[in-house]
Design brief:
By secondary structure, the chain is mainly alpha-helical. The chain has 11 helices and no strands.
Length: 276
């Protein structure tokens, strides 16, 4: 009987630690999705459909960090046979479960909405026209960043100084080093380049929007959203699916944690410790 108790002790500890790893995995997946959306131009696009997305992603980053910290707390409490720690851990897990039920439902609803639009012609709904406006604006910023950093000088001149005389523009097309070299070396002698340099200076503020071009893989076009629609909808629906999956992992982990913590606190192996 003693051997069985000894075995049950370590199996229970191993199981709870495994659950904590599972819980941390769900938290890290949610953290990844929230950081990606928050730190790129996508949050501005999705905001046209769901206005609270900016604040919600920030909150999710914090909550995901708490979930990962909670997993560490649970591991320490299990290894150290800390009954009070297991008690607090189970309370945190219960609160996390309730919160991520809501997050998971939102993730599934948004995933269903965006993936459903892929099968319909544009516009699938009135709200999609709002998203198009936000996407085209972000795409414009991203295209400016691309042209200033990787594009040719002639492209930059056409974007930021379209009224510039063609003869004047031809003088700068062979300048090496791109727009940065043009502004650093030639600007003082050619005041007509002020618009180009000012435009690229402003474009640097939108550097994080470059992920829009990376995802859509096009750098030209007069109707960006309609050309990138399927890529965009597929990308966004996938990330909301990841959010729903991460939430499900946290929910399952939280339920299991509550059950296991209650079991371990009441198990005979903790009877030698002072009751909390």
């Amino acid at each position: 009987m003693g051997c069985l108790d000894y075995l049950a002790k370590y199996v229970s500890l191993l199981l709870l630690i495994s659950i904590n790893v599972f819980l941390a995995l769900g938290g890290s997946l949610i953290l990844y999705v929230a950081v990606f959306v928050r730190q790129t131009g996508w949050v501005k696009v999705i905001q046209a459909y769901w206005s609270p997305i900016n604040g919600i992603t920030t909150a999710l980053i914090c909550v995901a960090g708490v979930v990962m910290g909670m997993a560490v707390l649970g591991t320490v409490a299990a290894l150290c046979r800390w009954r009070a720690g297991l008690y607090y851990y189970s309370i945190f897990a219960l609160l996390a479960m309730v919160l991520f039920i809501l997050v998971g439902v939102c993730g599934v609803v948004l995933w269903s909405k965006f993936s459903g639009w892929e099968d319909d012609t544009y516009p699938a709904s009135r709200r999609e026209t709002d998203i198009k406006a936000g996407f085209d604006e972000v795409y414009c910023y991203a295209q400016g960043v691309y042209i200033c950093n990787k594009g040719s000088i002639s492209d930059a001149l056409r974007m930021f100084a379209p009224a510039l005389n063609l003869t004047v523009s031809a003088q700068f097309e062979n300048v090496t080093g791109g727009v940065n070299a043009l502004c650093n070396d030639v600007l003082n002698d050619h005041a007509e380049l002020v618009d180009v340099c000012n435009g690229c200076e402003k474009a640097r503020k939108f550097q994080h929007f470059s992920s829009v071009l990376d995802a859509t893989n096009i750098t030209t076009g007069t109707a960006p959203y309609t050309e990138c629609r399927n890529v965009f909808l597929g990308l966004v629906s996938n990330y909301f699916l990841y959010l729903a999956i991460g939430s499900l992992i946290v929910i399952v982990g939280s339920v299991t944690v509550v059950i296991m913590s209650r079991y371990l606190r009441r198990h005979d192996m903790y009877d030698v410790y002072e009751a909390f």
